[in-house]
Amino acid sequence: MFPRTRIFIALVSVTVFALAGAALATAPTGFTTNVLARGTTADLRARHDGIRLSSHHGAPADVAVATVTIDPGGSSGWHHHPGIVVVVVRAGTVTFYDKNCHGEVHQTGEAFIEASDSPGLAKNTGADTAIVEATFIVPASTPPAPPTPLRIDDPQPTRCNLT
């Protein structure tokens, strides 16, 4: 086999694999995200009143704030985040499921953290619309690269049949 043929086959294989992975992602339903603001910190290091926040060696980070609305029965689809997300439930009830289908219920006024490369799914398990305020802290990208995404879609875990 000619070297060019092997390279072409390898490129086609990688493309097919990437497209198949994207096709397996689960889409959000009844889930709307409105990014209110996003900015980049030059040096993410802070300590005050027993709370510490820092990135590795003070590297820059993007901070974004968003309002997320989830209709009754709606879901985020399976996903994870490239950094840390602090979520506050402003109204309603949200159940957050991990890849093993273990769910934690969060009511109005409660907060939770999403910080894992494993897939998770947020679902409105209540009768009313759920509203959450999310603060994303993600690695900053270096221009001209596009901004770091706030979420990465994942396929549905084999151990959990939720959507």
User: Shape from CA axes?
Assistant: globular
Low-confidence sequence ranges: 3-22
CATH fold naming: Jelly Rolls
Instruction: Please give the count of helices.
Output: 1
Helicity level = 10-25%
Structural class by SSE content: mainly beta
Largest sheet: 5 strands, antiparallel
CATH superfamily: Jelly Rolls
Radius of gyration, rounded?
19 Å
Mean pLDDT: 87
The total domain count is: 1
- Tally of DSSP β-strands: 12
- Strands of the widest sheet, in order across it, are 1-4-11-6-9
Instruction: Name the beta content range.
Output: over 45%
What is the terminal-to-terminal distance?
A: 45 Å
CATH architecture: Sandwich
Order of helices and strands: HEEEEEEEEEEEE
Q: Can you tell me the CATH class?
A: Mainly Beta
Would you kindly provide a written description of the structure presented here, covering whatever features stand out?
This protein is mainly beta and 163 residues long. The chain has a single domain (28-153), classed as Jelly Rolls (Sandwich). It has one helix at residues 3-23, and strands spanning 29-41, 45-48, 51-54, 61-75, 79-80, 84-91, 93-97, 103-107, 111-114, 121-123, 130-139, 152-153. A 5-stranded antiparallel sheet has the order 1-4-11-6-9, with no helix packed on it. It is globular and about 40 Å long. 18% of the residues are buried.
